[in-house]
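Progress note, sequence design subtask.
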């Protein structure tokens, strides 16, 4: 089996050299007549010397690709570009900050090659600040497990091996890297979770915190409303919005009838409140439709970002 290792980078000039050395050691150790690798780095518009460090790496006995995004596009789009430019059928993801231990890849390969579709790491002993990173992650993972079919312990662990065939346009929309396992959990796949070594970040700062929870909740709402049966739910929500609008119209007409034909004041009935509630409900349902359509546009826009980078082979 052959593997493409995909690593997104943003301002990691102080981490990438050591990480690259570790990856070379792991790749050479695991390469044999039945197993080959390629290494893909995606520099997501770094403003430090990350790209210069990448260009100075020596050639190896396996292919190294360096993708340079023209601007900072996001981690998900960087990974998406890496996926689209990979040549092998199996993908290995890990972060470029050095906190994932490349040595864990060896054990993950053994589990993956037993016939599993996804081998997902989980960080049992995290080396992060508890309040700013570990606690938000625990909360987010708990919410994900409740609102999806996923049983993954640690969705935030970047280190994973997955079959490329599982990743298509129904999965790779928006910031898919956060909930990749949850998005494919609706399909029947073989999943194994392995404890991974989590290391202290030596240089740089992470941008993740409690704000990630709100993004995950939004993703989960869309995932449950549209992703599982997009067309069916789309029309169902549209029907509810239209029905609420009809009820609000009927309520207003009935209020007018009572006022002018029965001399019953508006405030003597609950109809004004009902009318307002129906109008608000219709606005909510139509807003959901608008958001769904907007996400569909974003999906297509994500694909268009493919042209917004350059590839350098070593």
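Output:
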């Amino acid at each position: 089996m052959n593997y493409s290792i995909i690593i997104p980078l943003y301002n990691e000039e102080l981490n990438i050299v050591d990480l690259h050395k570790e990856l070379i050691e792991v790749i050479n150790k695991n390469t044999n007549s039945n197993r080959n690798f390629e290494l893909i780095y995606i520099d997501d518009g770094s403003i430090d010397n990350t790209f210069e460090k990448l260009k100075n790496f020596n050639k190896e006995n396996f292919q190294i690709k360096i993708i340079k995004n023209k601007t900072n596009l996001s981690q998900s789009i960087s990974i998406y570009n890496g996926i689209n430019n990979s040549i092998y059928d199996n993908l290995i993801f890990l972060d470029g900050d050095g906190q994932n231990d490349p040595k864990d890849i060896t054990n993950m390969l053994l589990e993956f090659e037993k016939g599993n579709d996804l081998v997902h790491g989980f960080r049992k002993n995290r080396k992060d600040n508890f309040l700013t990173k570990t606690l938000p992650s625990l909360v987010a993972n708990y919410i994900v497990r409740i609102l999806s079919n996923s049983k993954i312990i640690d969705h935030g662990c970047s280190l994973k091996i997955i079959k490329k065939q599982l990743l298509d346009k129904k999965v790779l929309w928006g910031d898919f890297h956060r909930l990749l396992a949850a998005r494919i959990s609706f399909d029947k796949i073989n999943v194994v979770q392995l404890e991974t070594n989590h290391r202290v970040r030596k240089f740089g700062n992470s941008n993740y915190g409690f704000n990630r929870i709100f993004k995950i909740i939004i993703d989960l709402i869309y995932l449950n409303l549209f992703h599982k049966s997009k067309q069916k739910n789309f029309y169902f929500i549209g029907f509810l919005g239209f029905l609420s609008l009809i009820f609000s119209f009927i309520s207003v007409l009935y209020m007018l009838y009572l006022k002018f034909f029965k001399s019953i004041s508006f405030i003597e009935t609950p109809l004004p409140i009902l009318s307002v509630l129906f109008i608000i409900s219709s606005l909510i349902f139509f807003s959901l439709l608008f958001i769904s359509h907007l996400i569909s546009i974003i999906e297509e826009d994500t694909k268009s970002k493919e042209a917004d980078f350059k590839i350098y082979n070593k």
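Residues 2-227 form a domain with the Spore Coat Polysaccharide Biosynthesis Protein SpsA; Chain A fold (CATH 3.90.550.10). Work on this subtask will continue into the next period as scheduled.
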